[in-house]
Amino acid sequence: MKFRAIMGALCAAGLMCGVATAQAAESVEVLHWWTSGGESKAVGVLKDDMQKQGYTWKDFAVAGGAGAAAMTALKTQVISGNAPSAAQIKGPLIQEWASQGVLVNIDSVAGDWKKNLPPEIDKIMHAEGHYVAAPFSVHRVNWLYINKAALDKAGGKVPTTWPEFFAVADKMKAAGIMPIAMGGQPWQDLTLWEDVVLSQGADFYKKALVDLDQKTLTSDKMVQVFDTVRKIQGYFDSGRTGRDWNLATAMVINGKAGMQFMGDWAKGEFANANKKSGSDYVCAAVPSTEKAYTFNVDSFVFFQQKGQKAATPGQLALAKTIMSPEFQEQFSLYKGSIPVRLGVSMDKFDDCAKKSYADEQTAIKSAGYVPSLAHGMAQPDAAAGAISDVVTKFMNSSQDSKSAVAALAKAAKTK
Ligand code: GAL
């Protein structure tokens, strides 16, 4: 009898199934919110890699940009004792989940991570001295996407200040183009608002949204932030209520609208529609934020399975694959992000990704590298939620800027 046949016979008799067979039996249930065209393509790379390694992928995708619905679904799953193998969790929420004692550590596959991650990101992947999360990529949030044909009709010059931005928006309007494609969900409101906060300077952003400094939160500059947001709103269409971010991106892709404020996951949609940066669309930093960079790093955490404190082979394989150079490259090419792992070649990336990479390096050196509040990197859930409520209320009512600022200062005290 040949070796394979012997092993097969033993295995069928319930004895000595080889490692490969044992792994083949493990399925990994993965909770995430990557459901748009570009997002699905990107997460599909991980699915394929895991299947090639013999694991069964059980997809638990919960639609809804920025993950609010996914986070609600996750809580229900964990409380009912059905925690997934892995879930898309990022920023301070990683430590919040770890403090519940429900995560496993993945130290055994993270031996070389420290030297291959920027220090501020390496820190976020830890809880109590152990790696508990695996990072995918770096998204920059402070981007403005512009349809190239619409820009040409509006004079062809990319706006770098707010007055220039409003001049372009006016010209688009005059040319019969809807100037701004805006979606209608709280996180999209907060994304735009934090862009405008950043346009007052990275230092202002940090004091306001990272330190929650009351003096900064109640300053005249913060009143100006709300005034600018109000002015930008004047260029929205009336159909934005409930609109998903990727539908707003589609409006810029097909020329129905001129511009969109969105993080570079929007670039995944342009790429998925075979649009090229430079000729079909332009990516630019949000006006007056050229030297700053709001970062948003997606990651997976891994939940204890059946009360076992140690990671399963499938969980370790997931973590290892996510940080492998080959995966890092292909995932970001589809996702619109840049690899988080240091030293991955940028040769295959487009101009926008190369700009993101260069701007990231500059921002890190000049203290302009700041965590995104709207994407869960800057504050624990409670404070971020309270601030988000203030912004959403302002953007969906006729509240004046001064009273919004007072509400903001109060919300920032939420623990
Ligand atoms: C962000 C997430 C991105 C992208 C986006 C829209 O919070 O980090 O990966 O998925 O939401 O869904």
UniProtKB/TrEMBL annotation:
<dbReference type="InterPro" id="IPR050490">
    <property type="entry name" value="Bact_solute-bd_prot1"/>
</dbReference>
<feature type="signal peptide">
    <location>
        <begin position="1"/>
        <end position="24"/>
    </location>
</feature>
<comment type="similarity">
    <text>Belongs to the bacterial solute-binding protein 1 family.</text>
</comment>
<protein>
    <recommendedName>
        <fullName>Probable sugar-binding periplasmic protein</fullName>
    </recommendedName>
</protein>
<comment type="function">
    <text>Part of a binding-protein-dependent transport system for a sugar.</text>
</comment>
<dbReference type="Pfam" id="PF01547">
    <property type="entry name" value="SBP_bac_1"/>
</dbReference>
<dbReference type="GO" id="GO:0042597">
    <property type="term" value="C:periplasmic space"/>
</dbReference>
<keyword id="KW-0813">Transport</keyword>
<keyword id="KW-0732">Signal</keyword>
<dbReference type="InterPro" id="IPR006059">
    <property type="entry name" value="SBP"/>
</dbReference>
